[in-house]
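Case 687 in the screening queue. Each case pairs one protein sequence with one candidate compound; here the compound is flavin-adenine dinucleotide. For every case the pipeline is the same: read the inputs, emit a complex structure as tokens, and attach any notable structural observations.

Predict complex for case 687.
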Amino acid sequence: MQPERKNEKENQRNCAQRKNQRQQCSILMDAVPTSKRPFDAMQRSMPCNRMSADTSVQPLIIGAGIAGLTLGIALRDRGIEAEICEAAPELRPLGAGIWMAPNAMQIFGRLGLAQPIIDAGAEVERVALLDSRLHEISSSSLATVREKFGFTIAAIQRAELHRILLDRFGNRSLRLGKRLASIENHLAAPTAVFEDGTAASAPCLIGADGIHSAARHLIRPSALPRRTGQLCWSGLTEFDLPWEFRRSTVEIWGGRSRMGIADVGHGRAYWFLVSSGVDVARPRPSDCIAELLEIVKDYDGPSRDLIRATPVSAVSEVELTDLRPRLPWSAGNICLIGDAAHPTTPNLGQGGAQAVEDAWTLARCLAEYREPAQAFHAFETARFKKVKTVSGIAEIARPTPMGHEYCGIVEEVGKEVRKEVRKIKPGQFVVGSFATSDNTCVICQDGYQSSCLQREFMSAAQAALLRVPLADGTLVATRDLPSKELIPGLLATSDVLGTGWFAAHAASVKPGRTVVVVGDGAVGLLGVLSARQMGAERIIAMSRHEARQKLAREFGATDIVTERGDEGIARIKDLTKGIGADSVLECVGTQESMMQAIRSARPGGFVSYVGVPHGVDLDGAGLFFAHVHLHGGPAPVRRFLPELIDLVLNEKIDPAKVFDLTLPLDQVAEGYRAMDERRAIKTLLRT
Ligand SMILES: Cc1cc2nc3c(=O)[nH]c(=O)nc-3n(C[C@H](O)[C@H](O)[C@H](O)COP(=O)(O)OP(=O)(O)OC[C@H]3O[C@@H](n4cnc5c(N)ncnc54)[C@H](O)[C@@H]3O)c2cc1C
Ligand SMILES: [Zn+2]
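Case 687 output:
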């Protein structure tokens, strides 16, 4: 491909234009609070004199969804004409409505599309989360968002959004009824072969063909979307929403379902309902309305009327799927964007917005780099971190040693530190924790060794040999070598028991108290054991798995509650004379489990939290009126180790029961898989 020669004046103008674009980008950077300046890497790596729009690039885009159409428009804005090939014979977007978040609206703003979108839909002024009785869990006005970014969320009918994108892109370069079957010669000039037997070649090809992308199959054939077992229905209808739902997006959380409702303007309401309680493989009913009404039967407010008012033909059903974000998104002269590259479940309402960010960034990269492969590489660099943050999954790019729970025999004390290491000696059996600690600083002295001034986090403990920094402060040695049978119990003290114990301690468990434990993983189960040891009278374990319920009872649970969310809280209230529990141990770390914990505690009660939080956002007013003591964080296991080791060695407790799978060290991956698939509570690895 020959780059176009430009005279100097033109180059300067381009340069100024791009500077301007970059300034605009920096506004965008702040649009999504989770983003860490997504365009930084790009800006640093693109000096002005390398940039010149290359009209000979002319990509072929597969798919006329949000990503494909936005890319076509953004490219044209930069002087690049693209052709789009779409499988459908006519464009009928799947799903009823969509919320376009402020980050997407800023880009649409730059493309001159924001106002038409707002006019055709509705600008949202409030985002609210309610329980099924319509009590507010959280609510926020978007006034400050608008002030800061110029836009709030736009809620719009999908068909309207598509019409606006299509009107702008035009029909001239859009080919319908072209379903991509395969791609040939992708390294140089890719040729798309369509199911109708025709083919098209282009200098580069963009796969914007959605979650079941045929283009992705070529780049990463093994990357198949993960099924979540959750069904999602959506619909749109004319409906007179109560005033508190107008200009709002509202999510209502029931037990195993949640429903979103949005005013999309012009007297219409869009809704979606997600349920994990329906068999995905059931025969699909011809009339789903009765099934949906059953799911929301306990919801107060307009949910049932809204579903009843929606014609069956306007309701669509999909099983939610996603894919762990992973590079590469490109190979040779082919690149994926939008759901084709990184589909997520709609939980954060960001899938479409990320597709729009992709389109904007890729258009910029293609305009600035002459070689498509170079542009694609820059695009991946610019976008991957943000996408990963939004989907909330930590990427592991290569085989990585991990693990922070350990016990064993001291082989050697480091030469350089031998003088300082006085207590720990070769031949001793020792247990340590996931955080190293000197055990002497003011924080350690106060019992918070996991925040020691010299703390390091341990990793790579799933190995035959492990180096432990600050050995004297971190490790606790047993007096004699323990018997083989007691070693699993001692290993449990290293993390899961230490953490469950801290949870009970931080929730102020005392003799006679009523305790609720949220979460039935190893930590939750050992939280039950800890509460029993501390003399709790009643211990209510919230668990759905039969095997785990059984173990919870063995560890001392007096009651089991299987319900979650509102229903779970109602059950706890039933069991505690309507007031809630004295102590609640939160051992999961999700928004739902945290709210469940706080709302299960009585006023004046204690809530501890030891699950590493994933997207937990607490609302000030809710906390204010809950009137509970909150205490948690990474457990200072070192504080409790001497006591816990004694309890195990004296056989007062047997925390080793949480290990229900033992594997040799070289099968560590299978150990994680078993825990992930809930086949094992906790895997024990032996050298
Ligand atoms: C229930 C639900 C609610 C959602 N709500 C929101 C929300 O509120 N906000 C938000 O930002 N996101 C939301 N999302 C996510 C959002 O819908 C997607 O992230 C977005 O549509 C992705 O756009 P895309 O262009 O990458 O893919 P798609 O929209 O799937 O478009 C892909 C296009 O490619 C075409 N195609 C497929 N295969 C081929 C082929 N072989 N050859 C040619 N063409 C092909 C398809 O026909 C389609 O037109 C939601 C998703 C779901 C499931
Ligand atoms: Zn310290």
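Case 687 observations:
- The domain at 497-634 is CATH 3.40.50.720 (Rossmann fold).
- The chain is about 35% helix and 20% strand.
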